[in-house]
Amino acid sequence: MNGIDAYKETSVTTQNKGRLIVLLYEGAIKFMYLAIDELEAGNYEAKSRYLIKAQNVISELNAVLDMEKGGQIAANLRSLYNFMSNSLARANTKQDPEMIRQIIKLAEELNESFKAISP
After folding, report:
1. Which CATH number is correct for 18-117, 1.20.120.340, 3.30.70.100, 3.60.40.10, 3.30.465.10?
2. I want to staple 43 with a disulfide (CB 3.0 to 4.6 A). Which of 17, 38, 71, 117 is the partner?
């Protein structure tokens, strides 16, 4: 492992939970933008790969929700994450960049909220 890889690993493993959530959102958003680029370029296989990566990130956000401690907020987030994942699956099938843009907007809003409450 070189110095850059070691730094990246250390920076991820030492982040607080709020900052990790922000990083996950940023990753999902990046993958969705890349999917739109590939879709508009006619690269459907690459578009699908990026959408699946975004769905995987959203699934991870969903999986780490603490439903007991999070109460109604966690339940609402679970509903949003399920909606986002299902919408990306439909966008992938329909080749619809506007559907992806709608989910990007939602993810960006959620990300801004987490940024505001994360130290």
Report:
1. 1.20.120.340
2. 38
CA 38 – CA 94 distance, rounded (Å): 14
8 A C-beta contact, residue 29 and residue 104 = yes
The tokens for 108 are 């960006």
* Chain-centre distance for alpha carbon 82: 12
Contact 36, 50 (CB under 8 A): no
Per-residue pLDDT tens for 21-52? Answer: 999 999 999 999 999 999 999 999 999 999 99
How do residues 39-94 score in pLDDT, each as one tens digit? 999 999 999 999 999 999 999 999 999 999 999 999 999 999 999 999 999 999 99
